[in-house]
Amino acid sequence: MPKKLSNADMWPTLVQERLVEWGRCVNVQRLQQRITAADLCRRLGISEATLRRLERGDPGVGAGAYLNALLTLGMADEATPALKPELWRKAPGRRVRPTRQEQGATADADYF
């Protein structure tokens, strides 16, 4: 069964804008560094059709392909800065508890 392509209208505007920016960066840097599309495709392990979609900012292209292209062309740190550790580190001993309204009279209140 063929992969279902993503409809760009379903994605938030910010996501669409970032993907288009990343795609333009990949295209401009590839040309400035005089790397052919075929050569970059071999390095990334993707087809030329996927590279064309990536350079257009298509949201159907996997995030790994975008990040790999940015890294290969030397732009990963500028385009995707590392997250602050406090955003992803697990807070020890803290659980999210449902509010009293959420617990209410639902049968699943004791489940959590």
UniProtKB/TrEMBL annotation:
Molecular-function GO terms, alphabetical: DNA binding
Domain of life: Eukaryota
Coiled coil region boundaries: none
InterPro entries: Cro/C1-type_HTH (IPR001387), Lambda_DNA-bd_dom_sf (IPR010982)
Ranges for region Disordered: 90-112
Pfam family, one: HTH_31
Cross-referenced SUPFAM superfamilies: lambda repressor-like DNA-binding domains
Protein name: HTH cro/C1-type domain-containing protein
Lineage: Eukaryota, Viridiplantae, Streptophyta, Embryophyta, Tracheophyta
